[in-house]
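Morning run. Coffee first, then this:
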Amino acid sequence: MPPSIDRRKFLLVSALAGVTAACGSDPTRRPSAASAVPLSRTDSPAALPLHDDVPMIANGLSPESGGTLKLLNYAEYISPDVVKKFGKEHGVEVEITTFTTMDEAIAKLRTAGTSFDVWFPTPDVIAKAAVGKLVQPLNKTYLGNLGNAWPQLQNPFYDEGSRYTVPYNAYTTGIGYRADKVKEVTGYDLLWNPAYNGKAYLIDDAREALALAMLKNGSIEINTEEPGKITKAGAWLTELVDLMNIKVGVTAYQYIPEGQATVHHCWSGDMVNAQSYLPKGVEADVLGYWYPDDNTGVVGTDAMAVPRGATKPVLAHLLINHLLDNAVAQENFSYTGYQPALTAITPEKMVTDEFVTEQLKSTIVTPEVYARSQQIFQISPAAEALWNDSWAQFKAGQ
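And here it is:
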């Protein structure tokens, strides 16, 4: 069953307002040295701060039993069967509270009288959550399966040393298409090809769509804060209005298999899920997914963390470790459509195990693809406003 529309649509929303509030500062003011948030980049990782009043749990503790283990996650982004079996094994109920944006998730974490044991954050909010004391350091003695993760995500740039998080899933942003209707796969140019006029879609997300325009035109500055470059990206997108009668959306997993879209800017997991939406009698080999084989593609990951207020922190660690088990992770993948960032999940294995067709092997992310690709980072509030304004102008002209 595919994830909800809202979950992936809002994955890359920066959550500046909500998380800044968690840190107790005004987003229009420069943070003080004491509360400054490390701004990590792939070429400049930063270790997140530890706090004396937010310790990690001790070694060798027994897992808590009875009651409810509480998860905070996007809707339909974890297999109910996986968590139900885990809960039964440990004698607890598992309750999942959902959110659609990181702003909403942060607000739930900060609500008095509520607590959660496991949270599934995106990398762009992890540093501020750590500075704001919303998460607790992980004790890796409970996380023996972390070694199954991609090596670079055992020590990720956004959380050096994995102090607060471990990886959950990975995805790329490319172009899904109907292979029976696209005669030649020409990369980003597919969305500028008049042959697909009226049948072409962009992801309804400012950062993703403007980044696409930049990458298509040879720029990898997809985190730029320069007004002229952001405006230029908007102009490139505007070309698509008259040329393509372009549309925006986040339902590639439905529109492509059903034929409403011929080409659709989308996330890799959408095309994995698209296999379940094919009309009766239509084979999955009509689905295709293009992702560049150079460094002009976008990649991203999600993570797992234990909130500071967890009432079952030992069991929370054990659930996280459970989700890093290769077999469990693959079972979880079969539900979410978004792959675990584990070395055992390879394109070849996923074809052999019939998770995807040969035509969709490119949806499976590898450590090598992750290493060479671009990532959408958190930027300043002022720059975020420029990106959003440029996107709004494009949409107003549709």
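The domain at 5-170+302-357 is CATH 3.40.190.10 (D-Maltodextrin-Binding Protein; domain 2). Good start to the day.
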